[in-house]
TrEMBL record:
Gene3D superfamilies linked to this entry: Glycogen Phosphorylase B
SUPFAM superfamilies associated with the record: UDP-Glycosyltransferase/glycogen phosphorylase
Protein name: Glycosyltransferase involved in cell wall biosynthesis
Domain Glycosyl transferase family: 192-352
One term of GO molecular function: glycosyltransferase activity
Domain Glycosyltransferase subfamily 4-like N-terminal, chain residue ranges per copy: 14-180
Length: 380
């Protein structure tokens, strides 16, 4: 079958949505389907020759966030692409002008569509100087997603939210992790030494965008609490974003590793001890899976992926959602039990059963489910 994925972000972008969509696209291709992607960025120089074929559209940086882009196209242009590729179904993973034009063209041509809700952009508005517009954004998102046959989102929490907004036929498509890549065996003493950490020095780690919506103020307070409880501790930030320079200026005591990918990223995870994740805006939180697969004790809020995976005192530490005092208390606990090998092995075991194959199979089933039986056919 032919599937077309439509998204503003795709590798070489470095973020959870881009990695997820690349994994899903590659998985569909491995299962015998013809897959192409419409996105905003050309392929990187290291992309394999047999990589997913992409069609790029015009784009502009998101206001206040130059590292991400918003795609632009027309209904006519998308219809022309559909006529050329003849997709059996579309997966529209963006609510920007690119996604809106893609859905409009799909409806005009009668092509079955599934949409994806990957990012809580409506909660970012206040962080990016647009307060008071969350209700307007919810109405727009409801209108967009209800034009597709089904909307997929990665957690039950987010699915319940979408249903409260009036979005119909919402499904949960979870996430997976490459447990061979994110493995405690990648721990590197040489890397720890560059951070000034000995074998008996606890390292607290953050991985993700360095941006306002990631609750950076609580992150810095959490690192401070961690070091207060264990003065020898080292704190490491992996990632890039619009707030990186200001964070570096305000907190030069942290180590900043920048963006990392592949084995390099996996080594950074495995070389730490505790993962601190204070965000309250996730639809899932792929980094939590990666940290747990790497054998780290995770401190996070009780929602999305952490709620699904973490059992406090057994394989990590949860705090009541958006309760900063409780979160800091858990960071203090983590600083005092970071060497708990039982909890860290249990974190690894919890992630071990969450490989990508089951997610890819469900994604394939979801796409096939919106195709009328008379049009369905076996993969080429």
């Amino acid at each position: 079958m032919r599937f077309l994925l439509i998204t503003d972000t795709f590798p070489p972008d470095i973020n959870g949505v881009a990695r997820t969509l690349a994994t899903l696209a590659a998985g569909l291709k491995q299962r015998g389907h013809e897959v192409e992607v419409v996105t905003t960025l050309e392929a990187g120089p290291d992309e394999a020759e047999d990589a997913i074929k992409r069609h790029t559209v015009m784009a502009m940086p998101l206001p206040g966030y130059p590292g991400l882009r918003m795609g632009f196209t027309t209904t006519w242009q998308m219809q022309s692409l559909y006529e050329s590729f003849r997709p059996d179904a579309l997966y529209v993973a963006t609510e920007t002008p690119l996604g809106i034009a893609s859905i409009r063209a799909g409806n005009k041509m009668g092509i079955p569509m599934v949409s994806g809700f990957h990012t809580n952009f409506q909660t970012y508005l206040e962080d990016y100087s647009l307060p008071g517009l969350e209700g307007v954004a919810q109405g727009l998102l409801r209108s967009i997603h209800n034009q597709t046959a089904r909307t997929l989102t990665p957690s039950a929490d987010t699915a319940a939210m979408l249903e409260r907004w009036g979005i119909h036929n919402v499904g949960v498509l979870g996430r997976g992790v490459d447990t061979a890549l994110f493995d405690p065996a990648r721990r590197s003493m040489a890397l720890r030494e560059t951070w000034g950490a000995r074998d008996d020095t606890p390292v607290a780690l953050y991985v993700g965008r360095v941006a306002a919506e990631k609750n950076l103020e609580l992150l810095t307070c959490s690192f401070a609490k961690f070091r207060e409880a264990n003065p020898s501790a080292v704190c490491v930030v992996v990632g890039d974003g619009p707030k990186l320079k200001s964070l570096q200026s305000e907190h030069p005591e942290f180590h900043y590793a920048g963006s990392r990918t592949g084995e390099d990223l996996a080594t950074h995870y495995a070389s730490a001890d505790v993962f601190i994740f204070p965000s309250i805006t996730e639809t899932f939180g792929n980094v939590v899976l990666e940290a747990m697969s790497s054998g780290l004790m995770t401190v996070a809020y009780d929602y999305a992926a952490p709620r699904l995976l973490i059992h406090t005192g057994q394989n990590g530490l949860l705090a009541a959602f958006d309760d900063e005092t409780a979160f800091l208390t858990q960071c203090e606990k983590a600083a005092n039990c970071w060497e708990d090998a039982t909890q860290r092995q249990a974190a690894r075991e919890a992630a071990r059963h969450l490989g990508w194959q089951r997610v890819i199979e469900q994604f394939e089933t979801e796409l096939k489910s919106v195709i009328p039986p008379i049009l369905a056919k076996d993969p080429a």
